[in-house]
Amino acid sequence: MGRWEPNARGRLEQAALELYGERGFEQTTVAEIAKRAGLTERTFFRHFADKREVLFAASGQLEDLLVRTVIEAPDSTAPIDAVAAALEAGGAALYHERARKRHTVIVANAELRERELVKLASLASALAEALRRRGVTDLAAQLTAEAGIAAFKVAFEHWVNEPDEKDLPQLIRESFDELKAVTAGK
Amino acid sequence: MGRWEPNARGRLEQAALELYGERGFEQTTVAEIAKRAGLTERTFFRHFADKREVLFAASGQLEDLLVRTVIEAPDSTAPIDAVAAALEAGGAALYHERARKRHTVIVANAELRERELVKLASLASALAEALRRRGVTDLAAQLTAEAGIAAFKVAFEHWVNEPDEKDLPQLIRESFDELKAVTAGK
Hints:
Two copies of one chain form a homodimer. By secondary structure, the first copy, chain A, is mainly α. The first copy, chain A, is built from ten helices and no strands. In chain A, helix 5 runs parallel beside helix 8 and helix 6 (79-94) packs antiparallel against helix 10 (168-183). The radius of gyration of chain A is 18 Å and the shape is elongated. Chain A binds chain B through residues 78-81, 113-115, 117-118, 121, 139-140, 142-144, 146-147, 149-151, 153-154, 158, 174-175, 178-186, and chain B through 78-81, 113-115, 117-118, 121, 139-140, 142-144, 146-147, 149-151, 153-154, 158, 174-175, 178-186.
């Protein structure tokens, strides 16, 4: 095997998700992931710190996308709609079978579920900071970001649990509409 | 020391919070907590499974209070207002110096912060279930509960970080008002 391995990262992710699904996260070793991907353990560790990191490595990119979308929204856009647009863009980026498989692995493991909650809390903080940079007050920024993440989380869980019913960005839009309705006392 | 120790549980909680604040959570042992409370380790373990449990044991009572308040709200109360009333009642129960000390200990430790997020997620699930029992649809119940917990979390953090400014139930009311304003696109 040569030093240049095309799409090593993607192949490792794919292999890891397959094995986590087949055997469970705890039972899978890095050696097995590398073998399934046709790569070495050394290559694995060039891309990921450990087997947990395979599941969470993409959240930095997602955060960048959310922050950029909020900051670039037109000045006239209400904060809640800037956050909705950002999470819809995030949903469009996540809208593939791999995200669904990843979620199935995460819900099956308490430690991974905790980690996922931490990542969601960190996305909410990043969104709040982006809103403050738009001049939104601290309290409004925090509430908009946290409520937005709540809408995203609920939509994502529905999408995972009801395959092929609706696409994720559409579910996110509906979730924000419902959020607006329930907070209006409907 | 006799077998009957008045308010052993409260004394252990008090001693634990003092020590966690003075030395840090990791550096404190159960033996030290028992000693500070003037009790034995055996008594400690009659009340708590481990030193982490001291910080989270009350969350079952809080959950019961929230669920009961939602279920007992008048039929005419909008779901979001039933949740606000529940969390205000929860805030009134938590509105004492011990809750503030507890929070300071938790934010200083990554593992405890994760645990706290799990407890908040579990409170949101319990609130959503209580709303479904009131006949609220699944999606509306989840969004109302998650958005409500977001409002509570933001209010609680403000209360912890700005001592003596406002009382917690008042901050929770203001947080819900702000939540309604931001989701209305203001």
